[in-house]
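Lab meeting notes turned into a lecture example. A postdoc, R.K., suggested we walk through two folding results consecutively so the class can see how the record format repeats. The first protein's sequence and structure tokens come next.
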Amino acid sequence: MRSWMRAASAMFVVGWGANQFSPLLLVYRADSGVTASVVTTAFAAYAAGLIPALLLAARFAQRFGRREVVCAALVLSAVASAVLLAGGDRFWALMLGRLVAGVASGAAFGPGTAWIKDLSADAGPGAGARRAAVALSAGFGGGPLVAGILAQWLAAPEALPYLVHLCLTAAVAPFVWNAPDPAVPDVAATAAGGSRQARPRLRTALLQREFRWEVAPSAPLVFGAPTTSFAVLPALVPLHGPDIAAGGGIAGLTLLTGLLVQPPARRLSRRGSHVTRRWGLAAAVLGFLLAAAAVRLAEPVLLIPAAMALGACYGLLLVAGLSQVEGWAGPRDLAGAAAVFYCLAYLGFVTPLVVTALHGVLPPAPLFVCAAATAAILIPATALLRRASPGHPSHTG
């Protein structure tokens, strides 16, 4: 197995563990009587663990090495599944398991992206970002798809998906542990205050106008769009037949569509990362309008094109953001810059909580129309702000 594939396999397994929970939302509601607010809060607990872990993992990766941090994240991902397996539908288990899964993801994604980039140095510019995005998308899509099938037709729906993830982690761990890490841990510099010197460089990188006017405004849609598809819509639109497997299928379709659009996104990025971003925002507009129609008409067939559009939004915006960050962040700053991008992107994981909280004030269908209008406004707004902002020429991918 190639070195970059070993690192990518860790991101794949962590992504699998992070998203296998999605189709099980219906299991907890139907079989265990867990309320919708508890389930959506458990889903949001993932983001609560992920965001601080993202910010701290870059510093730990600089000091101890990226491989060590990613390996620790792999262990934490297994611990999260073990907690959910042992705790069942208990409130504390749902919260703790999702929180630990968020910490694992936060520890893996920033350093993992930088690690894959270093191991892909001979594959040309942008290869590392694309490979990291593919590994993440494959895990995000495969986890809920398999979990939904297992929970629908096999025994122990609240246990078997987690056992599969634990076995997958055990199979991948030896390859990750032995993978090379080209970056040398800077223990001496960190002990002497080198991390204080790194902060101004990272701050300067994040003040690039591309980040302020293009990456940051659209980043929450990276996961806000697909989360709407697989965590919100199946609970709002009645699914006929095997609803748990259908929920897993919607999640798998959403995220695997995001995986399939990434090669075209790579070709679009040659014309400029802003072009890829505009297509991603256009996909968001279409997806949210289809979501509004599906809820308003109670028509589950519309969930299929909505999932594909929202998944395309995810894939296009993920590639655009990671490619742009990789383009202007230096080697020592890449893990931190990717972590900040992921922090903004993972704000989208609070979408189920927002929809539940606003349900009495603004019903889901009009809320999705508002989301589509916001994404539509971002298409010309980011272009105008980028052109009007003083500074260096825009990075064109």
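The second example is placed directly after the first for contrast:
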Amino acid sequence: MAEADSDSGTRSWGNWVVTFATLAAPTTFIGALLLYFGFAYTDSLYAYFGVDAATLGFSTQEYALRSAGALYVPAGAALTVALIGVLVYYAARTLGNRGAPPPPWARPVAYAVSACGLVMFVLGVLGGFAVWRAGAMDTPLLIGGGLVLVVFGRALSFKLEGADYPVARERLALALVATLVGLSCFWAVHAYAKQHGTDDARYLARHLWLRPAVTVDTAERLYFPPRQVRETPLPVAGPPQRFRYRYEGLRLLAEVNGRMFLIPEDWARTGGGVLVVPANGAVRVAFRSD
């Protein structure tokens, strides 16, 4: 009896472990994707200003939060395309299950979908080998979308005949196609996240007035390119002061881990670097809004 109870307890724990693994694995995978795409977006955003994302030192939670803006459009587009595909698929299945022959145009349409997918796939492969000048997202979208259309067109042709799909002899090929489509989706979203980061950086550079204005007082003189930052020597009369120079015309680019990354407010016109100052008593910082 004790042995039976032990076996029952072992099976119960085993069931809990399987259940936990089933729930945790997708969550961990999604979290890793959010972290990866958030880093790609952030790295592209700050690289435009000459700052490496690793230098900033954002936390994993911050990277995951920053991935949201880079995933809205790809996720929305993928869901919209999937909805259209499902509607067309069920329409084809309804035509195939009526018992009557499908319309004469239905079968050529299914073949045309597969043919278009094959052309897209070939163009994507050629773009990947630089045969033609493909954009960052062109190659993965053509490869992945082409493969999806090839399989979708074949599934439509089967359903129009009232037959089941997939057939057993094609399951291995479908598994390989699914792997390639998943890789292409990952590739395309990564390219979109980086492009989205660059686009946001360009917009921010042209609208730095959206960032808080910063005035910095320092004990030692700082050196900036001419006419980028306004320097004002502080008066030395009266009680002794530790801060001798005041700098205006700066904007807060980021504040991470006790460090402020400051950028000249006319950076888009004059260029220049990014000033990193500690957020402690070494400098005196004042913020203002315009």
